[in-house]
Amino acid sequence: MISNLLAQNAFFKGLDPAELDLFIEIAEEKTFANDEMIFKEGSKGDKMYLIISGTIEIWKSEDTQARGSRLARLREGEIFGEMALFDQGPRSATAVASLNKETKLIIWQDEKIAKLINVHPETGNKILNNILRKLSHRLRIANDAIHTLLRANQYVAI
Ligand code: CMP
C-alpha cells in the first residue's frame, strides 16, 4: 500500500521497486489529529514528510502566537519539510494537520535519508532531481502570488 503511494508520487519518479524499498525501509508512519501541529516555524528541521491521507496547511507568521497567513494547503501525495533538510536552516513555516478527522504521514529522518543517498548515489541523484523539480514548481506558484500582491499594492498606491 505504501509502495503504491510512493510509486505514484512525483518525488519518487524514475525509481525502480528496489530503490523504492530503500525509502520504505527507513520510513515511519504517524497519525495526527485535526488541528495538531506537525512542526513550528523557526524550529529545527530534521525530518521530511509525505501525506498519505488528510490535508496539511502551511502557515507563516511574524508573531509566534498567531497563525498568520496560509501559504499553501497540501494534500495526499505531497511532500513537505524538505527545505530545512537542504539548507540546514530553521523551518520556514508552520505545518498543521487540518480539515480531517486525522492526517496520516510518512516521516523520514534527515540522517537516514543522507545515509541512503551516500550509500546509493544513483538513487540519491534521482530523488534530488525530483525534489528540485518540485521546489521549482513551488517557486513558480510563489512568484505568481508575489506578482499578484505587488500589482494589487501598486494599484492601491496609484
Ligand atoms: P521547511 O522549511 O522545512 O518547513 C516548512 C515547509 O513548508 C517547507 O519546508 C516546505 O516543505 C513547505 N512550504 C513552505 N513554503 C511553501 C509554499 N509556498 N508552498 C508549498 N509548501 C511550502
Short description:
The chain is of the alpha+beta class and 158 residues long.
Could you walk me through the main structural features you see in this protein, from its secondary elements to its overall organization?
With 158 residues, this protein is of the alpha+beta class. It has a single domain (2-154), classed as Jelly Rolls (Sandwich), CATH 2.60.120.10. It has five helices and eight strands; from the N terminus they run ααββββββαββαα. The chain has a four-stranded antiparallel sheet with strand order 1-8-3-6. β4 and β5 form a beta hairpin. α1 (2-8) packs across α2 (17-25) and α4 crosses α5. It starts with a helix and ends with a helix. The model has no long low-confidence stretch (mean pLDDT 89). The site of adenosine-3',5'-cyclic-monophosphate has 15 residues, from β5, α3 and α5. Adenosine-3',5'-cyclic-monophosphate binds at residues 45, 58, 71-72, 80-84, 91-93, 95, 138, 142.
